[in-house]
Amino acid sequence: MTDQSGAERGVAKLGVLKAMAGFLKPYRLQVFGASIALICTAAITLSIGQGLRMLVDQGFSSHANEAALNQALLLFFAMVLLLAAGTFIRFYLVSWIGERVSADLRKAVFAHVVTLHPGFFESQLSGDIQSRITTDTSLLQTVIGSSVSIALRNALMFIGGLIWLFISNPKLTAMVMLSVPLVIVPILVFGRRVRSLSRSSQDKIASVGSFVGEAVKNIKLLQAFNHQTLDRKSFEGHVEVAFDVAIVRIRQRAWLSTTVIVLVLGAVTGMLWVGGHDVLAGRISGGELAAFIFYAVMVAASVGAISEVYGDLQRAAGATERLLELLAAENRILPPAQPVALPQPARGEIAFEDVSFAYASRPDHPAIKGLTLAIPAGSSLALVGSSGAGKSTLIDLLLRFYDVGSGAIRFDGIDIRDLDPQDLRAQIAMVPQQPVLFTGTVADNIRYGRPSASDEELIEAARAAFAEDFIQRLPDGYDSFVGEGGVRLSGGQRQRIAIARAILADPKLLLLDEATSALDAESEYQVQQALERLMEGRTTVVIAHRLATVINVDRIAVLDHGELVASGRHGELLTQSPLYARWASLQFDDANTQAALAAE
């Protein structure tokens, strides 16, 4: 079991490195420049030790003169200037690479996420996905733009310092080397723990963000039920869990740093004792001891710095794994290798052929069972049934958010699985029962239906949805900001903007989910007239909760537990379907009303 876990960790690390190499590849020139600057600054820093030796032995010795001192100081200052220039170049390029890779990774993850099938989001929290795209990429940017550079620079300083230590005094170097294994072991042991805890910490922080987003999004409901105190306590629980995990991670890093300091500086102290006695005995010069101390401190500082950033690197590895999980998420709804083209112009003819479907989370409970139904082009169909009957599922299948388990759905005679999903959805517009508006202006939300539409077409769509009057009364008209989710507008106003969006899309297939439910009586009448005009010449599928809104459709399909139990017009179903007749009796006031509606 242990070997397998180790192998899996090794594969994961290789996957992370390979993925990051792919994101770095387009910027290999910048990486090369940063590497050269990194090597040069490390070499100059190491050379300062020799400058220090010359300064002590030649500039401060009893035989030194003013010219020798000035020459040593000028050489030392020249190295400082070169170090400063190299540091500027290294810092700029490395920081640029960090920002660029972070931006590219953020774009790549978002671009992939928005193409994933809706079923993926049933098991994923939106707040967690948001945290991965924002917090995790920001952490990665910090590490690439800072910690990696620090780690590489100190690794070079460590290697170069050791080489100079052996050149300067092998005996003293042996003392320093005794502490190296003692330092490396804690780094590896504690570092592995830090990586695991970092991944857990990122997950807990994501859950905190999810809770905040959900509470803010539903703030009215939260306050309406006086849930502030309970939610505050729940949030405190989430925060404390994240804090506890972070503290364990911090404690591991603190122990790592403490262990490194004690071991390394303890070895340096012993080295100074031996070296000081050698200077007093005349076996080495003061300059040689000063240079040796410089390199020893540099090696110790490098090990200490590496141990510090090692935790950051482990956190970045955990964050990268979370991002790569999103990038590796499989999209189950893909276009075929050779998509079939729709006829031009498309007609909008729909056919369900013995369709069965079950959600992945409930494989033993089919949502649709052997449904066969034809919808001629340009006709209207209403889907009626109790909650859970399968009405919304049929809409999702039509949009190919999911693939059928068996049977087929055809659009203009073509199995929709043989179509590119984008080509299919380009022929469809939807008006949901709960209108969805995006943060932006009124015009932005209407133009969502067809981004290339002109201002005149946009205004005409709003006018057709009877939305222009209230839009003109807004502070900035079509440029008015609607707030997050359209919070600045009433439910009826949001619904009319959603209808205008569908009108602007000019689809062949119109999907209406009780699109007038949020409107007052006057607005409902006006919008109903607009929808009737919009439905002319288009295939329309309506999810109906109120039977009074669909008595004039060409056909009504009655669903019960995913099965088609009856179909026909309103008057026919009153006599042919006991289930439909019972719903009608519950919704209509009296028999006279039913008779009048049936006569229509």
Describe the structure.
Helix 1 packs across helix 9 (286-328), helix 2 packs antiparallel against helix 9 (286-328) and helix 4 runs antiparallel to helix 5 (170-177). The chain folds into two domains: 2-328, ABC transporter transmembrane region fold, CATH 1.20.1560.10; 346-427 and 541-600, Rossmann fold (3-Layer(aba) Sandwich), CATH 3.40.50. The protein is α/β, with parallel strands linked by helices and 600 residues long. The strands form two sheets. A six-stranded mixed sheet has the order 6-7-8-3-9-10, sandwiched between helices. It is 64% helix and 9% strand. Strand 4 and strand 5 form a beta hairpin. The chain has 19 helices and ten strands.
Properties at a glance:
600 residues, ABC transporter transmembrane region fold, Rossmann fold, 19 helices, alpha/beta, six-stranded mixed sheet, 9% strand, single chain, four-stranded antiparallel sheet
In brief:
The protein has 600 residues and is α/β, with parallel strands linked by helices.
* Outline: elongated
- Can you tell me the CATH superfamily of the largest domain? ABC transporter type 1, transmembrane domain
CATH architecture name of the largest domain: Up-down Bundle
How many structural domains can be distinguished in the coordinates?
2
* Helix content class: 55-70%
β-sheet strand percentage: 5-15%
- Strand order within the widest beta sheet: 6-7-8-3-9-10
Structural class: alpha/beta
Q: What is the CATH third-level topology name of the largest domain?
A: ABC transporter transmembrane region fold
Overall pLDDT: 79
CATH class of the largest domain: Mainly Alpha
Order of helices and strands: HHHHHHHHHEEEHEEHEHHHHEHEEEHHH
Instruction: Give the biggest beta sheet.
Output: 6 strands, mixed
Total beta strand runs: 10
Q: Report the total helices.
A: 19
Oligomer state equals: single chain
N→C terminal distance:
73 Å
Note poorly predicted spans: 1-11, 590-597
Radius of gyration: 35 Å
